[in-house]
Hints:
This protein has 9 helices and 12 strands.
Amino acid sequence: MASDISSSPAQYLRLRHGCHVWQQPGGWRMSNAGLVSGRGESLLIDTLYDLRLTRRMLDGFAPVTARAPVSTVVNTHGNGDHWFGNQLVGDAEIIAAQASLADMRAVQPRDMTRLLSAGTPAGQFARQIFGRFDFTGIRPALPGRTFTGDLTLDIGGVCVRLIDVGPAHTAGDTIVHVPDARVVYTGDIVFAGATPVVWHGPFDNWIAACELIFGLGVETIVPGHGPVTTQTMLHATRAYLEYVHDQASIRHARGMTPQEAAHDINLGRFASLAEHERLAVNVHTVYRELDPGLPPLDGPQLFGCMAELCPQISL
Length: 315
Ligand SMILES: [Zn+2]
């Protein structure tokens, strides 16, 4: 099941003022990691979805961490592709937003293994998008320190600000701002070249997060997925969110079910974004905003909705 994804292309990028990136090629759960290095210590931003990928990332950063070891890790949110590799960071202090810790406790590696073995459309879809990862040997290493709102760290003389802009993509979404470098690591508030997925919402909070990031005046945005980018990607993210919210709301008012609405929406200029099947999740989230009495769907149910929408899947 687990093909050798650890040989897939990935790239080490050095930005400025101690900021570095491990950039993976994108796609479902192929996330980026970041490193901010100061005098004698570094902050690692996220680990990766399995141990092989995380080891390779840590090796990629090794020329920097040899002189500035990782003292602190921040997990930007609770999706596994941003923390399943935590056990490999040794004694480093692991920090996350309070709400992210709850997400990590709720969905652990064993849940992915269970979904991957399910004989359902959701299981089949999950095998297509997650089957290349290897969840064996993962011991959940949860954050030992949490925060709400924001937290400022001194990493060997480099000022780093953690800001929880969630709930949006998930219940807690931390961005990592390095003011002197004019760099922000956004976690999954930005998907460069791929479809944003609104697991939690509300949409307005995500749009507000885009506005907050605009206000930081940064030059460089390191997204959770996809290539390093600029503030222009915030426009694209906000435009997608506004469009999908509008289109789903119109269909909710017409009495369509979420799945009918997802099939009916023409994504137009957003259709070329990768992983467009996430529309099924996003429409559900809009419907729950409009009708708070609507019961939330669990992970396997949401993957089932995406499988049904995704034309590449032969069920
Ligand atoms: Zn992610």
